[in-house]
Write a structure and sequence with these properties.
The protein is mainly alpha-helical. The protein has a domain at about 75-190. It contains 7 helices and no strands. Residues about 1-5 and about 15-50 have low confidence and may be disordered. It has helices spanning about 45-65, 75-100, 110-125, 130-140, 155-160, 170-175, 180-190. Helix 2 (about 75-100) packs parallel to helix 4 (about 130-140), helix 2 (about 75-100) crosses helix 5 (about 155-160) and helix 4 runs antiparallel to helix 7. The two termini are about 40 Å apart. The longest helix is centred in the middle third of the chain and has 26 residues, at about 75-100. Helices cover about 50% and strands about 0% of the residues.
Length: about 200
């Protein structure tokens, strides 16, 4: 089954005291068992009674080693899904913007940027560990080989989405100029290692 990641507007507040790592709802539905239909065969009532007891005892034995079915979603899983939604949202915003100015002479590398952004989004969506996701996200943003940090570069737009929605949210122009300091705040917030960037900001 293909899993679709919805893009949302929520994010991580980089410039606000409150942490905004909202827990996206993850619903688990359990199909109900249809009732047994009426039997149309004549049967021995005593045999049915004995057989029913054996079945009940067998079910008890089988179920004795099975814990009750529960929908268990850890906090890290919720945060991981939320990060995936943020990356998907940033990718959509970036590709939509890029496609809107495809004719611009100054946007001659736009197609390469879109491919890079989509590849990152696809790879990130397959990560199953929250700590790995945090490190991957921070290191991607920190690697100058992944594009520029102009106001409408993917790295800048991704950092923009990670702020969340609040009154102190910084705009793209600010993040472009203060990219390194903003990234340091993000790395500290996520408690993710930020190694020296050999390739520039």
């Amino acid at each position: 089954m293909t899993k679709t990641i919805k893009a949302t507007g929520d994010g991580i507040c980089l410039f606000h005291a409150e942490k905004i790592l909202d827990n996206p709802g993850i619903a688990h539905s359990i199909p109900s068992t249809p009732p047994n239909g009426p039997s149309h065969l004549p049967v021995d009532e005593e045999m049915v009674s004995h057989d029913s007891k054996e079945k009940e005892e067998g079910v008890k034995v089988k179920n004795s080693n099975i814990s009750p079915m529960k929908s268990i979603v850890t906090e890290d899983q919720k945060k991981l899904e939320h990060l995936k939604q943020i990356v998907a949202n940033a990718t959509l915003s970036y590709t939509t913007y890029s496609e809107g100015i495809w004719f611009s002479f100054f946007h001659r590398h736009g197609k390469t940027g879109q491919i890079r952004a989509n590849n990152f989004n696809e790879a990130f969506s397959k990560i199953s560990d929250y700590n790995e996701a945090k490190e991957t996200l921070v290191q991607y943003l920190n690697d100058g080989r992944n594009g520029n940090t102009y106001p409408h570069s993917f790295r800048t737009m991704l950092l923009f989405e990670l702020q969340g929605n609040h009154e102190k949210k910084k705009d793209l122009q600010y993040l472009s100029k203060q990219f390194t300091s903003a990234l340091n705040i993000l790395a500290s917030f996520l408690d993710a290692p930020l190694f020296a960037n050999k390739y520039g900001k």
